[in-house]
Design a protein that fits this description.
Shape: globular
Radius of gyration: 23 Å
Structural class: alpha/beta
Helix content: 25-40%
Number of helices: 18
Length: 564
């Protein structure tokens, strides 16, 4: 199918609903060798893989791990998830045994402005309506576990507060998997003595919960329970931290998550197996699927493709410095996704002018891709650039990108998976296999565990963002030193900032220089085991736009319509 048909007359949901999926028990048996008794089916087309079966895989060798990341996001779109699906289908298309690991999408943004998180066009994971809505109930389980802890905190205070929790210093908010700005800041426990002690509180969206981050980093149920018990829910008047384990909450929370922690198995339009499991926020958390899904996939397939949220400066850095550090993962190749449209935006072109050839702007925008390539090399990893093709891309523009990448020592290949499925990304797949076979991957973490916390922030700011320095008030630095004295000094740091730029200014496109990274606040995620450094405004409960996509979502003749 030529690139000119990139603008398909069918919507993503129409393409997905027209597909004839195979029973998931057949996909599991034929593609992965998993017998039916090792699955917990949720209908015919999705299932969880049992934890006992996963344990039985421990001695099997690991396959090769491929990380898909991208340039800094723009309104033009990069198609990272679509590229992940297309690449995995393409690997199978060229005769390799491959599967993928993706994040579960948050339900709330589906009714706002966000596109689907199951790919697009002919590179999709199905059943896409289920995946984008209730799926197997994992996010509901996380919501319930989080809010159980919230209820136990207020109940403990109500019945005498034996732990001496200062109600002004309760750090644990409630969560809901919906965009609802009215719940960002609330006052709870109103209505008299019987309802408790009034205090200020608020809601975050479920994927921003520390329970979600813990869920995605836990190796097994015991590790999950330990991490849940380590959550710091607030402080006493003497500033002593109070943990969830002191409320005896972690056992009951684990009970609510017992089934959810098993990875979810689904398939692509082409019948390629896929784990979709866990979905932490990509800024205040590490933004990638669960450790349990990734490590299990590596036992089941020769090639495993996974992705990390946002551009490589946020997603890939956190994938490596948090997830790989904690789980012992070592990627064999990194695929950096870009579009010529997005590169032109980084070169200063307005969205309405993107269809016009503009070699000068494209050359300027290449600075963004170049910096991401350089960063990946700092981690000791080889890269391949996948250019997601659009119909307006000209031969001259394609040649410019390929030549520029060649000078940087990486191969750039065009991919037509959106229009053609796996067949359209076989060039990328062959290039990835070639790079992996060369065996040049030698993972290097950006900083050691024992580096002081603020120096870790400074290292990321200078090495990855190319900032002159990281700055913070004395109160922030004092808080970091206090956590070091409490034994948290060896934790990795998670930078929360705009995804649209290397700097904290979302309008600074390309590869900005001469700026600092100001850290205005730090938060301790003791259960997830990382420190969040907040640089700029971070939204943890989105709102709906003036015309939400919910306006066009409906059910007709028993089928969901208008969902992407």
């Amino acid at each position: 199918m030529p690139a000119s048909q990139h603008q398909s007359p069918k919507s993503d949901i129409e393409i997905a609903q027209a597909a004839k999926p195979r029973r998931i028990v057949d996909i599991a048996k034929e593609k992965l060798g998993i017998a039916e008794e090792n699955l917990d089916p949720y209908g015919h087309y999705k299932a969880k893989v049992s934890l006992s079966y996963i344990k039985s895989l421990a001695k099997k060798p690991d396959g090769k791990l491929i990380l898909v990341t991208a340039i800094s996001p723009t309104p033009a779109g990069e198609g990272k998830t679509t590229s992940t699906v297309g690449l995995t289908d393409a690997l199978n298309h060229i005769g390799k045994k491959a599967m993928m690991c993706l994040r579960e999408p948050s339900l709330g943004p589906c009714f706002g402005v966000k596109g689907g998180a199951a790919g697009g066009g002919y590179a999709q994971v199905i059943p896409m309506e289920d995946i984008n809505l209730h799926f197997t109930g994992d996010l509901h389980a996380i919501t319930s576990a989080h809010n159980l802890l919230s209820a136990l905190i207020d109940n403990h205070i109500y019945w005498g507060n034996a732990l001496g929790i200062d109600s002004r210093r309760v750090a644990w908010r409630r969560v809901l998997d919906m965009n609802d700005r009215a719940l960002r800041e609330i006052v709870c426990s109103l209505g008299g003595v019987a309802n408790g002690y009034p205090r200020e509180a608020g809601f975050d969206i479920t994927v921003a919960s520390e329970v979600m981050a813990i869920f995605c980093l836990a190796k097994d149920l015991e590790d999950l329970k330990t991490r849940l018990g380590n959550i710091i829910i607030g402080y006493t008047r003497e500033r002593k931290p109070v943990r969830a384990s002191e409320l005896n909450a972690h056992g009951a929370m684990t009970a609510l998550l017992k089934d959810a922690i098993a990875p979810n198995l689904v398939q692509t339009l082409e019948g390629t197996p896929a784990f979709i499991h866990g979905g932490p926020f990509a800024n205040i958390a590490h933004g990638c699927n669960s450790v349990s899904a990734t490590t299990t996939a590596l036992k089941l397939a020769d090639y495993v493709v996974t992705e990390a949220g946002f551009g490589a400066d946020l997603g890939a850095e956190k994938f490596i410095d948090i997830k790989c550090r904690k789980a012992g993962l070592k990627p064999d190749c990194v695929v950096i996704v870009a579009t010529i449209r997005a590169l032109k935006m980084h070169g200063g072109v307005k969205k309405e002018d993107l269809k016009k050839e503009n070699l000068k702007a494209l050359e300027a925008g290449m600075s963004n891709l170049q910096r991401h390539i350089e960063n990946i090399k700092k981690f000791g990893l080889p890269a391949v650039v996948s250019i997601n093709r659009f119909s307006a891309d000209t031969d001259a523009e394609i040649a410019l990108v390929r030549e520029a990448c060649k000078k940087l020592g990486v191969e750039a290949l065009m991919a037509d998976h959106w229009a053609m499925g796996g067949e359209g990304a076989t060039d990328v797949a062959r290039a990835v296999v070639k790079v992996i076979d060369a065996g040049k991957a030698n993972l290097k973490l950006l900083y050691p565990d024992d580096m002081p916390l603020f120096e870790k922030v400074r290292t990321i700011a200078k090495e990855i963002y190319r900032a002159d320095d990281a700055t913070a008030d004395k109160s922030v630095k004092d808080q970091l030193k206090a956590w070091e004295e409490m034994g948290f000094g060896k934790l990795p740091v998670c930078i929360a900032k705009t995804q649209y730029s290397f700097s904290t200014n979302p309008d600074a496109k390309g590869a900005p220089t001469n700026f600092n990274i100001p850290v205005r606040e730090v938060r301790l995620s003791a259960g997830a085991e990382f420190i969040v450094a907040i640089c700029g405004e971070v939204m943890t409960m989105p709102g709906l736009p003036k015309v939400p996509s919910a306006d066009s979502i409906d059910v007709k003749d028993g089928r969901i319509v208008g969902l992407f």
